[in-house]
């Protein structure tokens, strides 16, 4: 059985990907320092899949401990999700973000090279596109220009490091998956997006409003060049996103291969709010406020490359994501 090391595997996207890996018959080791997730996710993963991943509560910055894992396990591939990921927090803790995200990745690469583990899937982000002339993002675009926050720059820098490492090590197969806006959760409602502290992203904020933990949602600007003036994003169901990782794993090629994982369509902030209200029957109070610094108006994926080369495309809708979110809310009031 092929064994996969999943860093950050108790996090939002990592845990959903572990579910799909186990369902697809892979053996999974998770390494996570639990700085933004909970160990209880492991039991939820087992409840969903009937299988138990091996869990190591370790920090990727602890290189000797990480090396020990590679000494005692023969990994078929590494899926690297672990990283600090709050856009706003990265602006007040730039050193911590660069140190943690980049050194963690260098430690992974060192272990892979020394232990001849030749397949890596990296959790990248649409943020690396920075500012473009077109709201539709293509993998061929130049990246790194106009990125507005240290978090996004760590993703861009890591992509560039991986391209350099690949050039010096042709035996490696490296896949960069650029996510757009993941929402929703596993239909069981057992796992979901549950960040520690104050959420940045819109869906966890809507969830907090629905739970009564936040009085109303602040809509950051309605003067963008979009149909209703609010931001437009490519909201992809996290289960579709997770399945994209399985497809990528099955199509690993030598060198660096880059794929957008998105639906290819955009919905506005107001459309998301109205959909949530329609499906939940619950009002989501909101107030239009000033734009959030660094935000773009409209961003969505062109995912034709992933569709064609990975044989993957999204199957689920925003409505599915909201329905699944409501199931999560039922179990996590
Ligand atoms: C979406 C839209 C906001 C919150 C970020 C990261 C990206 C990726 C996804 C990790 C925008 C609006 C939001 C709120 C709002 N993360 N909004 N009120 O900024 O597109 O992308 O998360 O990989 O890397 O940059 O996501 O959910 O923060 O914002 O009006 O309270 O919702 O203005 O138009 P974003 P988001």
Write structural notes for this entry.
The protein has 333 residues and is an alpha/beta fold. It contains eleven helices and 15 strands. The protein has helices at 12-23, 40-49, 63-72, 87-92, 94-114, 150-168, 202-210, 238-250, 269-280, 304-310, 318-331, and strands at 3-7, 27-32, 54-57, 77-80, 119-125, 136-137, 173-179, 181-183, 217-220, 232-233, 235-237, 255-261, 267-268, 286-289, 300-301. The chain has a seven-stranded parallel beta sheet, with helices on both faces. Strands 6-15 form a two-stranded parallel ribbon. α1 crosses α8 (238-250). The protein is globular. The model has no long low-confidence stretch (mean pLDDT 96). UDP-4-deoxy-4-formamido-beta-L-arabinopyranose is lined by residues 85, 87, 125, 127, 179, 181, 200-202, 205, 217-220, 231, 233, 269, 292, 295.
Helix and strand topology:
Elements: E1 3-7, H1 12-23, E2 27-32, H2 40-49, E3 54-57, H3 63-72, E4 77-80, H4 87-92, H5 94-114, E5 119-125, E6 136-137, H6 150-168, E7 173-179, E8 181-183, H7 202-210, E9 217-220, E10 232-233, E11 235-237, H8 238-250, E12 255-261, E13 267-268, H9 269-280, E14 286-289, E15 300-301, H10 304-310, H11 318-331
Parallel strand pairs: 1-2, 1-4, 2-3, 4-5, 5-7, 6-15, 7-12, 8-11, 9-14
Antiparallel strand pairs: 10-13
This protein binds UDP-4-deoxy-4-formamido-beta-L-arabinopyranose (WQD).
């Amino acid at each position: 059985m092929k064994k996969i090391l999943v860093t950050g595997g108790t996090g939002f996207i990592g845990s959903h990907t572990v579910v799909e890996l186990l369902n697809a018959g892979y053996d999974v080791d998770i390494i996570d320092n639990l700085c933004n997730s909970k160990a209880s996710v492991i039991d939820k993963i087992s409840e969903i899949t009937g299988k138990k991943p091996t869990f190591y509560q370790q920090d990727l910055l602890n290189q000797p401990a990480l090396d020990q894992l590679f000494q005692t396990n023969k990994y078929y591939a590494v899926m690297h999700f672990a990283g600090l990921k709050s856009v706003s927090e990265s602006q007040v803790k730039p050193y911590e973000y660069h140190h943690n995200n980049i050194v963690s990745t260098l430690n992974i690469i060192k272990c892979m090279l020394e232990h001849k583990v030749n397949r890596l899937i990296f959790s990248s982000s649409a943020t690396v596109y920075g500012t473009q002339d077109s709201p539709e993002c293509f993998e061929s675009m130049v990246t790194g220009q106009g990125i507005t926050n240290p978090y996004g720059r760590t993703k861009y820098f890591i992509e560039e490091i991986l391209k350099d490492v690949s050039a010096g090590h042709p035996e490696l197969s490296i896949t960069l998956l650029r996510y757009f806006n993941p929402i929703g959760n596993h239909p069981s409602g057992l796992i979901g997006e549950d960040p520690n502290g104050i959420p940045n992203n819109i869906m966890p904020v809507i969830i907090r409003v629905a739970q009564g933990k936040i009085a109303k949602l602040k809509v950051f600007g309605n003067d963008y060049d979009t149909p209703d003036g609010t931001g437009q994003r490519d909201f992809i169901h996290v289960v579709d996103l997770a399945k994209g990782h399985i497809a990528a794993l099955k199509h690993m090629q030598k060198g660096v291969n880059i794929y957008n994982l998105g639906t290819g369509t955009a919905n506005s902030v107001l459309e998301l709010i109205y959909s949530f209200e329609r499906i939940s029957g619950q009002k989501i109070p909101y107030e239009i406020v000033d734009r959030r610094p660094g935000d773009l108006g409209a961003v969505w994926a062109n995912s034709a490359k992933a569709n064609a080369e990975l044989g993957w495309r999204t199957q689920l809708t925003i409505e599915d994501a909201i329905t699944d979110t409501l199931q999560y809310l039922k179990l996590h009031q």
